[in-house]
Amino acid sequence: MTEENIISKLENLISLKELDDDNTKALIHEIEKLIDRRHRKALPVILKLSFHLERLGAPITAYEILYKEAIARKKRNKKKEYFKLLYLALKAMSMASFTPFVERLLLESIEEIKKNSDLSVFLPYYLTLDAFYHHIYMFSYEVAIVEYLTAKEFLNFIRDEEISELGLPSKRKMEFYITENIIDLYFRLRDNMPEYRKEEMLSEAQKHLKNLDAKDEEEYIQAFLKRIEFHILSHNYKIAEELLNEGKNYISAQNERSFKPCFKRLEARLLREQNKYYNAYSRFVDALQESIYYGNNFLEKLILDDIFNLISKMPARGQLFSSEGEVFLDSMLNLLRSKDFYLGVDHSHEVAQLSVHLTGEVEKITGKEIDLDSIYMAGLLHDIGKLYIPWFILTKPTSLRPIEWEVIQSHPLIGAQVALKLGYPKVAEIIEGHHERIDGSGYPYGKKNLSLETQIVALADLFQAAITPSRIYKKPKTKEEVLEEIKDYGGRKFDAVVVQALFNVVREGKG
């Protein structure tokens, strides 16, 4: 397809309501190849296209398109256009993930802006982004509050005309956005504070809530949602219920993708505050499935955080091998199936089962007793971090781009955080290391010193993923083909005893 043909189809892409059509995904793949070309025309509808992709659940694709366009402007020495497009790219990424590359890019950009007075208009925008990443992804709430307030102060020194000329969000919109996030920060701090300080956090949130100046329909609904949440956390349950019922009148065909799951999430939070844990869990799951359906990546993350925070406080949390606990394990795995239907729940069960068989073999060979319970649970939950990965990447029919691989490679760390939140540090260690190798060639850290438990789950995952249809562009292999590849891994990527155990298990027909 020629460059002209692709550009002519961009307008058609912007009119689409969903991205799950194969032809649409193929066109996006062509656009990705186009933006990689060194000598190309500027894409005439780049901003419109990126906003549309972000809204439909492909924020990382939006980031990639904006980032490449920003680099093209930088090469032409158009610095202001570069920083504007880069800001929009990083903002799109903030709705989905936070990778080491993005963190470096953001911090380096802030330093460059600080050194160049001609770029000072961008400082409050980039500081707000950095605050947001600390707030949402690092849970560094104190750092985030300082940065939000600093950004708000810097806005006072920026001329409205300069902002308008650059096509950046207005000062008033930025002030609304910052205030809304500060309110959310105090709500989060309230959840993490001892009982005697909860009221103090709500009081701080209320001060900012009074200053939340909504001017359009979207802002009004966002402010309305914050009011409901305030009443839920203040235990004004009757008022919260009345407002939730009233809120249903504000949902329209134009805004349901953004806001319908938000109201369902608050219904779940209301149930949680009333200690109706099981009802709350069910409602959170409904909200999550709705968010996945609408492609609302950011809300998915918030709801997943809610779900795992809830499970960590539930009576069955400490007994995940009890009948009640198994219900939660199965429910979490079914959630994974809704995001990653190439592997998903069946793969998780197969890895867990193979890990159990490998453990028995390793114990026979070495005479060592190995933590079977942790291995089984880690096998089941090894990919739970993928719940936080945008569906558009998990189900992408073409090979992944570097930034998408970086996002995918964050899932062991996210999964480990989930296991720690549930109170299982050993399981967290195994999950974090299930893509590591003893020669340091793995990810996310390139660790070499791995426990036998970690290696067992890692090899079980490698084997099962290789023989399972996982991507359109990647055909599954036979067991014999995989064993042929793995036979030389002993002593190199895995301890020899773990590789020998796999050969024994497969020969016995257990793998």
Which runs of at least 5 residues are low in confidence (pLDDT < 50)? none
Terminal CA distance reads: 45 Å
- CATH topology assignment of the domain at 340-511: Hypothetical protein af1432
CATH class of the domain at 340-511: Mainly Alpha
Q: What's the β-strand tally? A: 0
What is this structure, in a nutshell?
This protein is mainly alpha-helical.
Please give a structural write-up.
There is one protein chain. The protein is an all-alpha fold and 511 residues long. Among the domains are: 1-96; 340-511, Hypothetical protein af1432 (Orthogonal Bundle). The chain has 26 helices and no strands. It has helices at residues 3-14, 22-35, 46-55, 59-75, 79-94, 100-115, 123-138, 141-155, 160-166, 171-192, 195-210, 217-233, 237-247, 256-273, 277-294, 297-313, 323-339, 344-366, 372-381, 391-394, 402-408, 411-421, 425-432, 452-467, 479-486, 496-507. The protein is globular, with a radius of gyration of 24 Å. The model has no long low-confidence stretch (mean pLDDT 88).
Brief descriptors of the model:
single chain, 511 residues, mainly alpha, Hypothetical protein af1432, 70% helix
Topology:
Blueprint: H1 3-14, H2 22-35, H3 46-55, H4 59-75, H5 79-94, H6 100-115, H7 123-138, H8 141-155, H9 160-166, H10 171-192, H11 195-210, H12 217-233, H13 237-247, H14 256-273, H15 277-294, H16 297-313, H17 323-339, H18 344-366, H19 372-381, H20 391-394, H21 402-408, H22 411-421, H23 425-432, H24 452-467, H25 479-486, H26 496-507
